[in-house]
Backbone:
């Protein structure tokens, strides 16, 4: 910013030209920042393909001389990653679908239906947005034990099946749909369900896309609840399996190569998904203002 | 941020307009249909909300006044009420006080760093960079979306004193890297650096949205009046960004007060409890030792702290704008 202050403000010069003096500096600063931000990813990606001797070499080997898949092979021998991957996929898909349906339903009611208690219900949703998840963990565990849902997909999915964030997001988008359109359909005798499902839902596809991405990733990255709600390793999700592996010295045996291979396999799908859909992310945050 | 505008929007919403041809009776009918439909559409969410959120929140409160332990997982009704005993015990518990201090440390150092770096990045991205903006934005935001457990595993290796990335950089210039995560003084700062790295992207995106909402006419007018870039930043950008600063500060603080995964994976709370946070402490008391009544009291103390700090921040920063 201050790089420009020596520059005399020329009244008539258009803004872009006046700023051009600081542009190289801005690029240098941003590039340095980006290097720091991506360093852990680069380190992970490179280390996953190093041999054991290169991993512990001093001075360090930055780029592997011969790329090896040994770390991945060893890891897959010790850790049934495809199983955990499937568990994560199943849970994330179920959570996403149920959020899309249930949050849209309440979002529609709050945005477009005039009913007694609507404002109170909306207040409840806003309140639910602010409650930290830690406050529910202990009784949820007891409840799930009583329902015999520990180590089941239902136990992993149900507490996240409908979130306040989704309701808030869908309500925001549905409010922009003109009332006249819905009134016309009502005059033609359409049921509220028909209006919701056939008219409103197709109109809010971009919002549904944003909600899907955020919900899917939220579930994919979720850690605390799956850690509590699973005892049987066969029901672990990917993060729980990786954390259990990484924090147990007997399992990983201090092999950073295997751990980097594991982190690589967990992070890569998320990064690819993010880069492919990055527009939806930044828009979603800007409109809804949530992680 | 959006809370107040949303509430206002609800109140201003006109009742559904009945068309001229619709008589009084059909309007009434429509109201009845909408009433029924409104509640039917709300039912699935309300059922899930009641069972998996409202009930657990209340149950935590009740549990915090009992000696809820392992045997009560199968027989909850056998837990005994012990009044405020858990709460009294908490404030004489050195481990809890330490975890409270550690969490405070994490917030007090981590939040300003995250906000400042996020703001600087957003301002840089908003200044003359057009074609490369998406590229940099994606780069800075990438850590936010990645699985925190995997990322924590990577950071553990990055900070490894014998063969990590930092140790490598140190050895290139002939220094010896300290044992970051094994040192009582360096472990927490290391976790903070990682948290800042991970959360800067969220704050940056919020600030970019805020900066783009600053009307260009205002900036142009300031330039015509001969304002320097710094004056423009201080006089126009900063005041207009206040709501964004407030919002980013509040959500970052709430997130950091709940910090759990980083210490769980990277340090397990050590060395000597120097990275034991309230959330990690609560998890251990509740799920490793099954002192669930005691852990519930911890959860509520943390909740009250979070609410108190949020209200305080809203007050302080709102007063500043006046």
Residues:
């Amino acid at each position: 910013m201050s790089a420009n202050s020596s520059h005399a403000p020329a009244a008539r010069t258009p803004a872009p030209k006046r700023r051009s003096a600081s542009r190289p500096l801005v690029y240098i600063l941003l590039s340095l920042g980006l290097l720091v931000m991506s360093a852990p990813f680069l380190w992970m990606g490179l280390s996953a393909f190093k041999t054991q001797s290169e991993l512990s070499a001093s001075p360090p080997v930055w780029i592997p001389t011969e790329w090896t898949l040994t770390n991945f092979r060893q890891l897959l021998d010790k850790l049934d990653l495809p199983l955990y991957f499937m568990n994560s996929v199943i849970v994330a898909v179920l959570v996403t679908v149920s959020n899309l349906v249930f949050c849209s339903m309440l979002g529609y009611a709050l945005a477009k239906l005039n009913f007694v208690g609507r404002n109170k219900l909306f207040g409840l949703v806003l309140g639910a947005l602010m409650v930290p998840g830690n406050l529910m963990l202990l009784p949820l565990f007891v409840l799930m034990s009583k329902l015999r849902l520990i180590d089941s997909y239902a136990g992993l999915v149900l507490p996240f099946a409908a979130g306040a964030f989704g309701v808030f997001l869908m309500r925001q988008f549905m409010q922009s749909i003109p009332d006249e359109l819905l009134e016309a359909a009502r005059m033609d005798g359409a049921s509220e369900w028909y209006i919701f499902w056939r008219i409103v839902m197709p109109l809010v596809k971009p919002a549904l896309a944003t909600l899907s991405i955020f919900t899917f990733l939220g579930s994919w990255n979720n850690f605390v609840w799956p850690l509590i709600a699973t005892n049987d390793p066969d029901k672990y999700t990917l993060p729980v399996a990786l954390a259990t592996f990484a924090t147990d010295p007997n399992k990983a045996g201090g092999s950073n190569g295997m751990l980097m291979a594991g982190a690589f396999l967990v992070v890569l799908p998320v990064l690819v998904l993010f880069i492919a859909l990055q527009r939806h992310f930044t828009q979603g945050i800007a409109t809804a203002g949530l992680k | 941020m959006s809370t107040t505008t949303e509430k206002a929007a609800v109140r201003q919403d006109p009742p559904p307009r009945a068309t001229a041809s619709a008589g009084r009776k059909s309007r009434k009918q429509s109201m009845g249909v909408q009433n029924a439909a409104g509640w039917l559409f709300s039912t699935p969410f309300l059922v899930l909300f009641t069972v998996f959120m409202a009930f657990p929140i209340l149950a935590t409160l009740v549990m915090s006044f009992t000696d809820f332990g392992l045997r009560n997982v199968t027989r909850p009704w056998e837990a005994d009420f012990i009044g405020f005993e858990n709460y009294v015990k908490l404030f004489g518990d050195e481990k809890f006080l330490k975890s409270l201090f550690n969490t405070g440390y994490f917030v007090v150092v981590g939040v300003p760093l995250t906000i400042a770096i996020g703001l600087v990045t957003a301002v840089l991205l908003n200044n003359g960079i057009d074609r490369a903006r998406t590229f940099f934005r994606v780069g800075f935001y990438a850590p936010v979306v990645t699985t925190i457990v995997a990322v924590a595993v990577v950071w553990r290796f990055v900070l490894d004193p014998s063969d990590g990335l930092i140790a490598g950089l140190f050895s290139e210039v002939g220094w010896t890297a300290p044992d970051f995560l094994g040192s009582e003084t360096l472990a927490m700062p290391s976790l903070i650096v990682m948290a800042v790295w991970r959360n800067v992207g969220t704050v940056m995106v919020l600030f970019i949205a805020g900066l783009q909402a600053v009307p260009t006419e205002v900036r142009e007018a300031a330039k015509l009046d001969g304002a320097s870039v710094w004056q423009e930043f201080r006089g126009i950008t900063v005041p207009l960004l206040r709501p964004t600063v407030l919002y980013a500060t509040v959500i970052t603080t709430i997130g950091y007060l709940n910090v759990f995964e980083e210490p769980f994976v990277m340090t397990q709370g050590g060395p000597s409890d120097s990275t034991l946070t309230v959330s990690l402490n609560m998890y251990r008391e509740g799920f490793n030792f099954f002192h669930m009544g005691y852990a519930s009291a911890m959860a509520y103390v943390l909740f009250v702290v979070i609410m108190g700090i949020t209200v305080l921040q809203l007050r302080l920063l709102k007063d500043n704008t006046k």
Observations:
- Chain B touches chain A through 124 residues (CB under 8 Å).
- Chain B has 13 helices and no strands.
